[in-house]
Amino acid sequence: MNYRKHIRIDSEIRFGKPIVIGTRISVYDVWNRLSNGMSKQDIIEDFPELNEERINAYLAFGG
């Protein structure tokens, strides 16, 4: 999984936290939800800008 096509780090957005390109959703936002037991589908319902590929990119970024 090449996370670079999904994740961007920009000091002007969310204080430089890694985010999904084209949004203000941080990697931490997704990790937090996953660690609290939410499924990928639950997260996609909360953030329609995401899809399973983008969530997997977040996981690859952290791994």
UniProtKB/TrEMBL annotation:
It comes from Maribacter chungangensis. This is DUF433 domain-containing protein.
